[in-house]
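Task: sequence design from structure.
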């Protein structure tokens, strides 16, 4: 089927005069998790990963993706005729260089300008200039090959109440207008769904695992225009928005409205996320000189959680700690008793336990339930019928999370299912040391995540081991489980870690064909003190799920790491005990028993 789609695309390319067609996986909002309507990369290639670019020419079809997906992509592309091109990281733009090297002089490269950012389209076009080649934007160009393409989602919109958000919509809009004034702008166009949801305190279920509303927003000096499917709004939600001068308009009329807007003054856009087509319409409306490209102030503001949000996260991790205790107790008992439990069975059980909790809304991403060699795939997808049976030996990895009304969770635990090899125990220990070392870090105010990434990698590097993904990502408050602008990874990024930012701590070790280990806690950046050398920051661990100490090779660990681990497990037990029954309490007590340090 994929081969036929590629050939059909080539036929269309010949009609359009294109020498190459570029298909990215984004939607018009630069979202990580894409609604079915815009899963264009998956449609044309069969690749289901969340990052990558497909390029089709007359004689070549290729997928460019980063190291998280090399193993997965190789399997999914088999038999399609699409070649895998390995990028070192998601930030790499090797595919642009490849096009520039392979396009004929005066050639045409087709893109869907609704689903590629202004910056990326500009980079591509600039790379083509030396050959006299150019970019041609044709929105929804795969439409002709996609007769059963999904429609726009129709989930109802709800208000994210101030008791959970910690700030009113009116306060946020007033703050943003102040930020725009300081930048010399009267307007701002927002296209990122998480930013719109945060600013307007609205949520829906348009994007799988992300409670967003498919929308654009234009913030003016007195009015905010929200472009979304009007049928998704109940009367009370419309009224709630209108009291803050937010006017809801049809999603499809965004471009037309911008074209007719009689606006004066400058408009702020984020060209790194704004799609190419909408960016061109804004530039025509406001004029190139009045279109200011810069980072969205909303991105940092939503990443720094207020006290209400932080307390919500703490409550969410209590809920998840209860769930995970019950889940791992169940799993251990079932497998030990010889019952047949598959990876999918385990995933289903975990969902059932979470769904029974008060205030549960949805999972925050697709659960990674991986046993043995499958855990060597950092972004493994559990598929019933092709999943493994969990046996009473080796390691099982579970990476999962949830949205509760007041907070979002993301947690990974790797647990022993029985006897382990020496190598499994050693990798388990080194990865535990890496996670603990980052959790204990103290660093100067103003330090970006890329500067402390090596703290987590040090135990692994000392043993000549490493992992290809980032060490930590931000987490939104009932928004995206992956959010910026902060991150803890090797890629250079200037955004400093700020008090109130919540970031994951998740180093890993992966041995293809054998096993994978990843331990993940969520850490809150907090002030650590001030002295003659400046202000200092550290982390508070929010996660409340036990860390299994039985596989550890104790002599490898430093005393301070063992002390941290004992304190962490003791806190987990004391916090969760009031919520557990006697058998659960007894089981958790055995799992959190202190290590004898001596």
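Answer:
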């Amino acid at each position: 089927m994929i081969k036929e789609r590629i050939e059909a695309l080539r036929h269309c390319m010949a009609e359009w005069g294109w020498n190459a067609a570029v298909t990215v996986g984004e939607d018009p909002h630069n979202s990580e998790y894409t609604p079915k309507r815009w899963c264009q990369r998956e449609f044309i290639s069969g690749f289901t990963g969340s990052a990558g670019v497909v390029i089709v020419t007359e004689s070549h079809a290729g997928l460019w993706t980063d190291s998280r997906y090399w193993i997965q992509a190789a399997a999914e592309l088999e038999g399609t005729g699409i070649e895998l091109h390995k990028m070192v990281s998601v930030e790499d733009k090797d595919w642009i260089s490849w096009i520039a090297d392979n396009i004929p002089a005066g050639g045409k490269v087709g893109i869907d300008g609704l689903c590629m950012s202004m910056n990326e389209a500009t980079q591509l076009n600039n790379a083509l200039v030396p050959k006299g080649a150019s970019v041609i934007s044709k929105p929804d160009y795969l439409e002709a090959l996609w007769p059963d393409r999904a429609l726009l989602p129709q989930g109802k919109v709800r208000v994210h109440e101030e008791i959970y958000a910690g700030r009113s919509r009116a306060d946020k809009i007033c703050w943003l207008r102040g930020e725009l004034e300081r930048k010399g702008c009267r307007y701002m166009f927002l296209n990122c769904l998480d930013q719109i949801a945060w600013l307007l305190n609205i949520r829906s279920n348009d994007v799988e695992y992300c409670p967003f509303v498919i929308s654009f927003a234009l913030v003016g000096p007195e009015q905010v225009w929200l472009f979304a499917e009007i049928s998704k709004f109940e009367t009370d939600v419309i009224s709630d928005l209108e009291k803050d001068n937010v006017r809801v308009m049809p999603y499809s009329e965004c471009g037309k409205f911008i074209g007719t807007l009689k606006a004066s003054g400058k408009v702020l856009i984020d060209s790194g996320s704004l799609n190419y087509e909408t960016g061109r319409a804004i530039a025509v409306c406001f004029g190139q000189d009045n279109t200011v490209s810069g980072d969205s102030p909303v991105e940092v503001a939503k990443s720094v959680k207020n006290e209400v949000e932080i307390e919500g996260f703490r409550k969410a991790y209590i809920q998840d700690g209860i769930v995970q205790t019950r889940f791992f107790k169940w799993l251990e008992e079932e497998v030990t008793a010889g019952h047949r439990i598959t990876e999918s069975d385990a995933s289903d059980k975990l969902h059932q336990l979470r769904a029974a909790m008060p205030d549960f809304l949805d999972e925050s991403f697709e659960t990674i339930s991986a046993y043995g060699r499958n855990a060597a795939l950092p972004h493994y997808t559990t598929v019933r019928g092709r999943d493994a049976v969990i046996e009473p030996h080796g390691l099982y990895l579970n990476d999962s999370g949830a949205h509760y009304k007041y907070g979002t969770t993301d947690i990974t635990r790797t647990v022993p299912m029985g006897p382990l090899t020496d190598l499994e125990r050693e990798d388990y220990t080194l990865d535990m040391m890496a996670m603990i070392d980052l959790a204990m870090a103290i660093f100067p105010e103003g330090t970006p995540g890329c500067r402390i990434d090596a703290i987590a990698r040090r135990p692994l590097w000392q043993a000549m081991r490493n992992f290809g993904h980032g060490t930590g990502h931000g987490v939104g408050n009932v928004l995206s489980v992956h959010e910026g602008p902060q991150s803890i990874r090797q890629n250079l990024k200037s955004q400093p870690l700020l008090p109130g930012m919540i970031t994951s701590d998740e180093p890993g070790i992966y041995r293809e064909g054998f096993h994978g280990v990843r331990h993940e806690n969520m850490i809150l950046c907090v002030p650590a003190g001030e002295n003659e050398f400046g202000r200092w920051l550290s982390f508070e661990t929010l996660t409340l799920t036990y860390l299994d100490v039985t596989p550890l090779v104790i002599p490898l660990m430093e005393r301070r790491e063992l002390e941290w681990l004992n304190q962490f497990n003791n806190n987990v037990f004391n916090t969760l005990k009031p919520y557990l029954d006697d058998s659960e309490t007894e089981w958790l007590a055995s799992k959190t028993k202190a290590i004898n340090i001596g």
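The two ends are 63 Å apart (CA to CA).
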